[in-house]
Amino acid sequence: MSNFNQNEDRACQSIEALLPQYIENLLAARTMLEVESHLTRCRTCSQQCRQLEATVNLLQSMDRLETSDDFMAKLHAKLDTVVPETGLHLSFFASLREMVYRLQQARTVPILSASMTMAGVIAFAILYHPMPLRTVPVPAAAKIGVEQPLQRNVALAAVNPFDDPAAANLEAHSAIQDSNLATISNE
Amino acid sequence: MVAAGIVMHADTALVQRAQANDRAAFNEIVLRYKNKVYNYIFRMVHNAVDAEDLTQETFVRAYMSIRSFQSRASLNTWLFRIATNQCIDYSRKNKRIQANTTSLYEDVNEEGEEKQRDLPDLSFDPQRMLLNKELGRRLEDALSSLPEKLRTVVLLYDIEGLSYDEITAILNCPLGTVKSRLFNARSSLRDKLSPYLQA
């Protein structure tokens, strides 16, 4: 088979694949022109296209059948014997999905989410109370170590309020500082 | 498109009433869709009595489960899905019978192989009406000889006028599959009808 024939065959195959969209005008303008251009050149494809169009037209114009006259009467007799399901058999997730879908359809999601956020903030403000500080239990040994010197100092201060070793230390320290300052000023 | 939207809106209102046990609303749904569903089922099963029974069964099922109908799908799609499932069940039950039934369009030779009948050349028939009638009959035969999967798609798309999206929802298969089945079905019908189409 020559290259020309091979190329033509390939072109015919691609055109045939496009014919359904072509007959329904669903192709882009450029592709539409390409198909039309091929159809004017190729008799086989042109015939295929006409036949496909005729088949679809035939299908679309097929006779419409109607149910028998007593269809409704028979149906009502059957419906009288059955009970509609309650719909409770829907799974939880199916119900949830349905609810979300309905909300999306109603476009209420932004309003709803804003309201829920507001409600959350208000509820937090009302219900939130800072936790009181917890007292950490001190081990008995540590308690004795802290309490004994404290009690001793309290006892000393009670005997002679001026005989406080801490105060004496502080006094000595300030006297040294004063003498240093005096020395500096003299210089 | 606007008309479709109006129909869908009217359907939604009817469904809501039917879900609240309004029998008159369900009656309205049946009157609106019974012929569409019957046409589809008849061309799937090719038996008027069975088709009517299956149509009734479709509406009985719809009535029973109307409360679980979710507004995500259109009523049209939902009913056709129930109808399709009815046809599949029917086909399973009657598989053996169907296997033994031959289409008018096809014949079986002694070796058991199917061969096409020689079609009469109608190109010189002066009576166009007769030709159209014959063509219609041949089309019915060609349709019934299609594999069930291809027939379903071509009936829903070309005869009932459903969209690709609706068909993918009914058959629960990808869009590409629906398109390729439609292409194959139409090609097969075209090949079978080509002698008549030329005439």
Can you characterise this structure?
- The complex is a heterodimer of chains A (187) and B (199).
- Chain A is mostly helical.
- In chain A, 73% of the residues lie in helices and 0% in strands.
- Chain A is built from eight helices and no strands.
- In chain A, helix 1 (3-23) runs parallel beside helix 3 and helix 2 packs across helix 3 (43-60).
- Chain A is elongated, with a radius of gyration of 49 Å.
- Chain A starts with a helix and ends with a helix.
- Chain B is mostly helical.
- A two-stranded antiparallel ribbon of chain B has the order 1-2.
- In chain B, strand 1 and strand 2 (114-116) form a beta hairpin.
- The longest helix of chain B is centred in the C-terminal third of the chain and has 24 residues, at 175-198.
- Chain B is globular, with a radius of gyration of 19 Å.
- Chain B starts with a helix and ends with a helix.
- The chains are: A mainly alpha (187), B mainly alpha (199).
- Chain A binds chain B through residues 17, 20, 48, 50-52, 54-56, 58-60, 62-68, 71-72, 74-75, 78-79, 82-87, 89-90, 94, 98, 101-102, 105, and chain B through 19, 21, 23, 26-27, 30-31, 34-35, 38-39, 42, 52, 55-56, 59-60, 63-68, 70-72, 135-136, 139-140, 154, 158-159, 161, 179, 182-183, 186-187, 189-190, 193-194, 197-198.
